């Protein structure tokens, strides 16, 4: 598998053409085969890149510009449509290669199940890994309608692999009663709110390798209608950006991140894609040291 090119197409703003010197690699995971409501997130990675052309390369929040870091956009992985199992294998193999080359993986989803093989590979390299999960949904089901490969299951899989005490969940406002009971018993669980509880939790994670996974539906639908399973009562884009900045300014060691569940077809205004693109810029400037 080639690590320096998944396909030819649009790239994220200011991406380097040199894979070898890159500190971080952006890659797309265009999969939406297991969603429980509206498909379309497989088109998210490409559109996030396309709208990035409207971004400035300078972040006034972090006082850094994109030319201060080296990152490479490899494009989207070629995933076999409809074959969730093989798609997850391809994602895992790709990320394994990035980690061997010393690159930080920055993933674009795709449904949230795509985060599972990434977390699994990073955990192999960092056995003391912690996961910061920011989402409207708990994603703690063991299966959905009898199917264990579902976008409602990735964090449960991660908890069973790593131990729930290594999972930190923020913003959750939807799930089954069983999921909430499991979370309260097994996870560092902070439902409904994000920034305030995150600020209190970050000191516990100082010095640890951390993977950050953000489902765009943590935002209120008024801020991000372009997602497959929108959930009323979410946070603002301002708070989500402040959350990324808080992680960036902390003493945690971010070793990878993703933004998932952007479904452009449901947002003709482009606001969902625009906020996702800005989040990626801030992750690059905040997490890549």
From TrEMBL:
CDD domains, alphabetized: Agmatinase-like_2
PROSITE patterns the record matches: ARGINASE_1, ARGINASE_2
SUPFAM superfamilies membership: Arginase/deacetylase (SSF52768)
Tree of life domain: Bacteria
InterPro entries, A to Z: Agmatinase-rel, Ureohydrolase, Ureohydrolase_dom_sf, Ureohydrolase_Mn_BS
Record EC number: 3.5.3.11
Pfam families xref list: Arginase (PF00491)
Record GO terms (molecular function): agmatinase activity
Keyword entries, A-Z: Hydrolase, Metal-binding
PANTHER family: ARGINASE/AGMATINASE (PTHR11358), GUANIDINO ACID HYDROLASE, MITOCHONDRIAL (PTHR11358:SF26)
Family, per entry: Belongs to the arginase family. Agmatinase subfamily.
Entry protein name: Agmatinase
Organism for this UniProt entry: Marinicrinis lubricantis
